[in-house]
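User: What would this chain look like folded?
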Amino acid sequence: MESKAVGFDPLHKAYGFGLHITPFIYRWKLFAFYSLLPTLFTVFVYFLPSTVYFLQSTIMELFGIDNLPMNKTSRLPQLHADPATSFALIALITGTMALGFAPIIVRLSEVGPIATAFWRMAFALPPLAILMSWETHLPPDSGLPPSFPPDSGGMKVGWQDYRWLVLAGLFFAGDLTSWHVALHLTTVANSTILANCASLFVTLGAWWFFKQHITLTFILGLAVAFIGAIMLVGAKFSFNSQSWQGDALSVVTAICYASYFLCIKKSRDKFSTFVTMTWVSAVTSLALIPVVLLFGETFFAVTLIGWALLIALAFLTQIGGQTFVAYALAHLPAPFSAVTMLLESVMATLFAWLILSEALTGWQALGGFIVLCGILLARRGSQI
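Assistant: Here's the prediction, encoded as C-alpha cells.
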C-alpha cells in the first residue's frame, strides 16, 4: 500500500493582526505558546501539594509553630513523599506530550506508514543501545534519578522474564502497524481518540491480571478524562464508508497498545528503562520488516527532509516519548499512567491545528481542559 501524500504549506493562511511578521513565524509562535500552556498548568497542579507543604513547613520553622490548623494540607505530603515519584510524573507528562507529535510526522512522512514505524524503531535503536551500555556503568552515587525499578535490587533475572520484553515488542509492532495505517484512512483526531481507548483496557487488565485495586475516584477521573477526549473530536467523529476501516484499526491499536503497556509495566519489575526500550525497539523493528514487505510500501525517503522527519520521529516519540513513559511505569500505577496519556489526544489535536491546518474549535479547547481535570482526579484516586 502506497502512503498517502500529505502536503504542508506553512503559508497556507495569512495572519494579519496588524503585525509585520511572517505567517510561518507567527504560526510557530502560536505553536510554542499553546504547547507551553498545558505543560505549565499540569506541572503546577501536580506539584501544588508539595509547594503548599513546603510553605507550611517554612512558616512553622520560622515562627516556631509545632502545628498548623490545616487538616487538609497535613495530608498533602503523602502525595509526593518519594522524589522518584515526582520525577516519574514529570517524565510521564513530558513523554506523553512528545508522543503528540507522532501522528503529525506520520502524515508528513514520504514513506509508507508501516515503513515509517520501522524507521522510527531503527533510528532509535543505536542511541538506546548506547544509553543502555552507559547506564550499566553509572556509579550508585551519580545523583541521577534511578532508572532501575525501586524494588529490583538483588532480584534474579531468568529467561522467562525476557518473554515480557519480547511480547511488548510484538504488541508494539501490532500497535504501530494498525495505527500508522489508520492515520491514512481517518483523521488524526479520530485515530487518536479511538487508540486512546487503551486507557480503558489498561485499567481492566491491571485489575484482572495484576489484581490492582481501582478506586471509585479513579474511575470517575477516567470517565471525566475520556469524556474530554471525546469532546476533542466533537462532530468530526463519525463512522462512514470512507473512514470506518481506519476507525476499526484504531480500536485494534487500542487493544495492542494496552497489551504493550501492561507488558512494559511487568518488564520494569526486573529491567531498567534503557534495557527495556532497547529490547522493545529491536523486537519491534524485526517484526515490522515482513509487514513492510507484505504491504509493498515505499521504504526509502527521497529527500533530506523526508529522512529528517524519520529521525525526528525516532528521537521525539521513541527515545523521548516512549522511553520517558517506560521510566515512569516503574514508579507509577499502570492505570493512572494510561489515563495521563490521554493528554496525547490534547497535544495531537493542537499540533494538527498548527501544522496540518485541521480545524480547532472552542468546544475542543474545553474538551482538552476537561481531560486535564480528569487526569488530576484520577491522580487523587491513585494516591500518588
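Residues 82-135+159-382 form one domain. If you want, I can go into more detail on any region.
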